[in-house]
Amino acid sequence: MKICKTAQAGAFESNDVLITVAPNEQGGVQVQLETKRVILKQFGKQIEQVVRDQVAKMGAEDVIIKVQDKGALNYTIRARVQTALERALV
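Structure tokens predicted for Citrate lyase acyl carrier protein (90 residues):
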């Protein structure tokens, strides 16, 4: 799956996550996670793994994924990543 343009999904509200995807000119999958320090320390690796798993499941390559988390659960993160990736294809 080749990402053609920048796209977003989600909202920057409580219990949600804003996902922004963009083509990565250097290649590979890059995850940029922004959240509260406490959440980053406790759940940062898990959030990043959920994002990377969804990207791999969809077969996306050469993408930068910016994750602005406000306490979203894993299923919400997966859905937002999927939607943003699908929007970036069109």
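The mean pLDDT is 95.
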